[in-house]
């Protein structure tokens, strides 16, 4: 015997896209428009640069985009240019990694032992107050003009940023949440997984994004002072030779390195927060 239900199956009218498809299309169009506007701004800046170089601004000081393109092509087309990029990239990655490791360990140790933190925090603050580039001659005396002096300079700048974010994150950890986990029978690894790591995730990745440019700054500063290779060495040589085109070509390489590092850290940040369940959630709209 056939039965008839009261529920009617509704189908979208022909030619009308589902709401989710419309939202996705709108987001895609918005993203495309933003990218197009960015490209337009860059093109306008390049055209103004080309036109104003000479009549308005001295050409020897700012060069021209066409000359910068030639210098960049020459740099990327030579083995020595790629050697300089490779050396700088290795020094940045090594200094950044060691700085993150040192800062994390320092922050966890001083944050986990309040008495030790109160004793050593003023000393850490005093060391952090010293400009990192001022320590470069000291590191050069210890490690020479090789890569390790630049790695150490970069590591120092990154370590303090990571340390303060981890240390303050531990201090701001809600004691009530820790006690709740402990009352429910949780052990140290439960406190670590349910309270500590979620609390430290956001400030930790913020420190990574801040430390990336600091690592590049430390390496380039060290290569400026004393080095035989690297992008910083080429920038210093170009400045001595009053070669503005080569100077801008080196700066473009540094900008690309900074964007690449920031892109990797941003993707890692989004992935880690999603895995921890801390990514921003959108509230579902009530159905009509």
Walk me through the structure:
- This protein is an all-alpha fold and 288 residues long.
- It has 2 domains: 25-60; 63-275, MetI-like fold, CATH 1.10.3720.
- It has helices at 19-52, 59-62, 65-76, 79-112, 114-128, 136-143, 147-171, 175-183, 188-225, 231-240, 244-275.
- Helix 4 runs antiparallel to helix 9, helix 8 packs antiparallel against helix 9 and helix 10 (231-240) runs antiparallel to helix 11 (244-275).
- The relative contact order is 0.11.
Helicity, as a percent range: over 70%
The name CATH uses for the topology of the largest domain is MetI-like fold
Task: State the fourth-level CATH superfamily of the largest domain.
Answer: MetI-like
Low-confidence stretches: 1-7, 281-288
Our Rg estimate from Cα atoms comes to 27 Å
Structural class: mainly alpha
Features:
288 residues, mainly alpha, MetI-like fold, 11 helices, 77% helix, 0% strand, disordered N terminus
Describe the structure in brief.
This protein has 288 residues and is mainly α. The chain has helices at residues 19-52, 59-62, 65-76, 79-112, 114-128, 136-143, 147-171, 175-183, 188-225, 231-240, 244-275.
Walk me through the topology.
Layout: H1 19-52, H2 59-62, H3 65-76, H4 79-112, H5 114-128, H6 136-143, H7 147-171, H8 175-183, H9 188-225, H10 231-240, H11 244-275
Helix pairs in contact: 3-11, 4-5, 4-7, 4-9, 4-10, 6-7, 7-9, 8-9, 9-10, 9-11, 10-11
């Amino acid at each position: 015997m056939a039965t008839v239900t009261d529920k009617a199956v509704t189908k979208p009218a022909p030619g009308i896209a589902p709401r989710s498809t419309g939202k996705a299309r709108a987001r895609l169009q918005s993203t495309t428009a933003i990218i197009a506007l960015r490209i337009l701004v860059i093109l306008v800046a390049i055209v103004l640069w080309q036109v104003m170089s000479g009549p308005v601004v001295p050409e020897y000081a700012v060069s021209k985009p066409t000359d910068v393109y030639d210098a960049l092509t020459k740099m990327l087309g030579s083995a020595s240019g790629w050697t300089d990029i490779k050396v700088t990239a290795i020094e940045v990655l090594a200094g950044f990694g060691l700085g993150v490791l040192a800062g994390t360990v320092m922050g966890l140790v001083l944050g986990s032992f309040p008495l030790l933190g109160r004793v050593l925090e003023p000393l850490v603050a005093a060391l952090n107050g010293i400009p990192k580039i001022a320590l470069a001659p000291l590191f050069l005396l210890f490690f020479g003009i090789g890569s390790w002096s630049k790695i150490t300079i970069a590591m120092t700048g990154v370590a303090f940023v990571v340390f303060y974010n981890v240390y303050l994150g531990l201090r701001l950890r809600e004691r009530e949440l820790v006690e709740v986990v402990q009352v429910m029978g949780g052990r140290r690894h439960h406190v670590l997984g349910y309270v500590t790591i979620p609390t430290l995730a956001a400030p930790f990745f913020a420190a990574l994004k801040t430390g990336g440019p600091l690592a590049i700054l430390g390496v380039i500063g060290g290569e400026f002072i004393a080095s035989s290779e690297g992008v910083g060495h080429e920038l210093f040589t170009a400045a001595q030779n009053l070669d503005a085109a080569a100077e801008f070509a080196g700066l473009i390489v540094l900008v690309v390195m900074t964007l690449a590092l920031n892109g990797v850290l941003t993707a890692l940040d989004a992935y880690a927060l999603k895995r921890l369940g801390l990514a921003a959630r959108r509230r579902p709209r009530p159905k009509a």
